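Class prep. Protein, please:
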Amino acid sequence: MLRPTSLASVLLLVLPFLPSCQGGDSGSPFVVQRDSAGIQIVEAMRPLWGDSSPWSIDPDPVVDLTLTGSGPAHEFYRVGSMKQRPDGSLMLANRSSEEVRMYSATGEFLGSFGREGDGPGEFRGLRVIENAGDNLLAMDSDGRVTVVAPDLTVVRTISIPPFTLNLHYLDTGAILPEPQGLILPPAGVVGRIRPPVPLILFDLQGEQIDSIGEMQGPELHLHVQEGFSGFVPIYFGKASHVATFGQRIFRGSNDAMQVEELDMSGNLVRILRIPGYPLALSNAQIAAERDLVLGRGPPGSTSPFRQALENAPASDTRPAFTDILIDPSGAVWLQLHRGEGEQDQPEEWLVLDADGTWLGTVGIPDRFTVSDITMDAVLGDWEDELDVEHPQVLRLTRN
């Protein structure tokens, strides 16, 4: 088992010595803080690490679940989220078999539950899993959440709104669905829309606790013409994402490199931002994105839907990030956005320390998709050159 380290103690030792190592930027502050109407605003002006990251991810896995055993339990397809349990064991969602599997910290298969169906412990489109104290949550695309005990016994099945993108747990015992459902625009509205979507807390019995506000929904284009009326995506369209840590909720719309921190009542208590973070988007990048999307359709197609895609607009800037993760130290990790035509590039995650300091960017090994981040490891799925999936635990070194 990898041992956690104290990031706070390391930073206390390092911070006093860093300004003298930053060359021409040594006179400007790393962070500017102020309060506005009781809200703390933290603006990170430049990265603490400079041009290189002292944190690194070793591409040689600590654990590779495809290689730690044989047989169907070590064969994977369409791996969803992967989590480390409090005892160090590993859980993952194997979506192709509608199955949640459990492995020891060293990769030994310990058991599983789930199959396709509508009964207890069954799923229709298994999406994500989430730690909930000692229990585990598993959600399918219909908004059914299965609560599972540490021994994989199904405790209960609850229902939350369908079309939920992700599920987040808070230390109070509440769960926060990350909504993806579309809110229909007012009658007569066409063109670019971005209606808000509500943020609602539920308890582990499936009862609604409270509405804590809303976030901006995905940016879409409502296209109306003969033969087709409906939504089409906007190229490099904006969206919002949420994450939780302890009893705090982190909400961010990727129009800018900014994350808002809310309390359990939905009150805004802190804003973390990097003002002026470059998000320029060239006409060539937009054209390449459009060509890629249109190239997925049948050659020579002139369908109304294809025409709608051809006429769909593009955003003025690229989205800042496409996911938010909070590690056990409270550091905020933001996955830098990659367009559809940039998916062959490795993931990169920008890191803000728990106090809002912009640390820098951590590069992810090629062909690896991050699912979760601990103090000393990154969990996720790596695809080899034959597209065989390898759920892995990679070592994260925080020098």
Summary: Residues 1-24 have pLDDT under 50 and may be disordered.
